[in-house]
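We include this case.
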Amino acid sequence: MDKILIRGLTVHSLIGVFPEERHAPQRLILDLDLTFDLSQAGRSDDVNDTINYASVCEGLSKIAESTQYQLLEALADEMLSYVLAEYPCSQVKMVMNKPDIMPNGTNVAIELVRAR
C-alpha cells in the first residue's frame, strides 16, 4: 500500500509529568506514515484525490498547542484519532520525539500505530 510520509514536523505542547515541565511548551518532533492509495492522485494530478499533508500538519499543530497532557502517549493517541477521523487513510503511524528532556541523552520517543 502507498504512503504519505511526513518527517520532522515540529510542534510545541505543554506536556510532562514533572513540575519543571509544566511551565512552558516543549518542542516535539513528529514523523508520520499515512497509508493511503495514491494511485488515483497519480493519474489525476489533483490534490482532491490525495491527503492534503499541509492540512494534516496544521491540525496536529493546533492539537499540540491546545492540549496539556502529561504523557506523550495521550497526546499521540489524540493526534492519531484526529487523523483517522478527518482523513481517508487506512492506517497511521507516528513517532513522537521529545528531544529536549534528558540532560544526558539526545531523545525520548514513542511509536504508535492505529488503523481503521
User: Anything to note?
Assistant: The longest helix spans residues 72-86.
